[in-house]
Amino acid sequence: MSIIVQKFGGTSVANESSREKVIEKIIEKKNKGHKIVVVVSAIGRKGDPYATDSLISLINTQYINKRDLDLLMSCGEIISSVVLSNMLTQKGYSTQVLTGGQAGIITDENYGSSKVLSVNTDNIKNKLENNNIIIVAGFQGITSQGDITTLGRGGSDTTAVLLGEALKSEFVEIYTDVDGIMTADPRVVPDAQVIDTINYSDLYNMAEDGAKVIHPKAVEIAERSNLKVKIRNTLSSSDGTTVLRRQGIIDYNDKKIISSITYKDRRTQIIIDNIKNKGKIQSVMNLLTESNISIDLINFSLETNMFTIDDENVMLAEKILSENGYIYSINRDCCKISVVGHKMKGIPGVMSRIINSIFRENIKILQTSDSHSSIWVLVKTKDAIKAMRSLHKEFNLGEK
Ligand code: ADP
Ligand code: MG
Question: Residue 120 is part of a domain; what is its CATH number?
Fold first, then answer.
């Protein structure tokens, strides 16, 4: 009998009627004879009483240590696990609820963003033997000392894929509030289409560049063990997206050379004039990275050096730059748009199509960069939606 892991995100368990749909998805697979391990997120999103953000809002975060904060944050997933279990038992199914630690997820002590060191599935396997549906609180683990930890935002995706890997499950289903991985965030580009199959690397690039539908770490784990992942909608019966290893050679005649368009908001561009700073630029990277400020979109030339950082690091970066005597300029409220697709490799003219389609909308491009499978464009946040819609159209992504 094969094992299937099903993960349900915050919106999937947000209210009574969506939870009914969750139960249907679980029962459907159970009745097909699979052994089921369910991973759940906390109920709802910001504003909902038991969502992670709501739990944090109960306390003054200045007066809490990271260990206690993790204890608090881990409660949301425990609550939703018990609620789902209760609904299943009412329908006659036997269940076992496990915290992350009880499910064997052992982490380091880096509270708030712990790294999983090992997964011991003995407990889950034992409990599966008695026809139980196992419900695991996502997003959390335990240290070897017995302290509860959390895995960082989006961590339930990681829990699901890690368990899928360790249990050698047939596949992992990630249930969310959209029909699958789409050619763009449907909240931004209304005619975004579901992508039927996608490879790990394109999905990883999307997730890393802001498409929050799945956490990049989860994609990385799935790829290392070639674990099949399906992204599906709790509220519909559509097939969703299947994530697989890239098959065969690339078909360059495929009219869709781009998989998707995604974005990361709240970026700030920093420009350092190399001549005014008399070649001191090399050390700027070290200074910023030493303070844990991550830098991307790095364009270094003889005259000018540009890069972007997250808005939340701007104050610290400015302090470092001015204390070290740098002359720089700063451009806030930027958005990094990513055009993702491994098929663009070696195809001439992709960059010029991107630039032209943004220029056509009279939008200023602040910076560009590219790799073999992504092209990045930095624009002002106020222009981002228009730019993304234009790119989506340029590459025919709205056509099925
Ligand atoms: P969950 O609570 O189920 O984990 P998330 O909010 O983390 O859900 O992720 C789902 C959301 O991801 C969708 O509601 C959608 O707005 C957003 N999203 C961003 N980019 C994409 C994309 N390319 N395809 C699908 N969804 C996307
Ligand atoms: Mg999520």
Answer: 3.40.1160.10
Supply the residue whose CA is at minimum distance from atom 10 of ligand 1.
Answer: 213
Is 10 known to sit in a ligand binding site?
yes
Ligand 1 pocket, residue 177 CB under 6 Å: yes
338 closest CA partner among 394, 382, 309, 297? 297
Number of domains in the chain: 2
Residue 219, judged by CB atoms within 10 A of its CB (0-12, 13-18, 19+), counts as buried
Given the CA of residue 9, which atom of ligand 1 is nearest to it? 3
Whether residues 172 and 270 fall in one domain = no
- Are residue 134 and residue 29 in the same domain, yes or no? yes
Decide whether any atom of ligand 1 lies within 6 Å of the 10 Cβ.
yes
Q: Note whether 166 and 275 are same-domain residues.
A: no
pTM of the model: 0.94
CB 379 near ligand 1, within 6 Å = no
- Reading the chain (400 residues) residue by residue, the pLDDT tens digits are 799 999 999 999 999 999 999 999 999 999 999 999 999 999 988 888 899 999 999 999 999 999 999 999 999 999 999 999 999 999 999 999 999 999 999 999 999 999 999 999 999 999 999 999 999 999 999 999 999 999 998 999 999 999 999 999 999 999 999 999 999 999 999 999 999 999 999 999 999 999 989 999 999 999 999 999 999 999 999 999 999 887 655 555 556 789 999 999 999 999 998 777 776 666 788 889 889 999 999 998 878 889 999 999 999 999 999 988 888 999 999 999 999 998 888 788 899 999 999 999 999 999 999 998 999 999 999 999 999 999 999 999 999 8
With a 6 Å cutoff on the Cβ, whether 174 touches ligand 1 is no
What's the CATH code of the domain at 387?
Answer: 3.30.2130.10
Q: Note down the domain range covering 278.
A: 260-394
Residues in the chain: 400
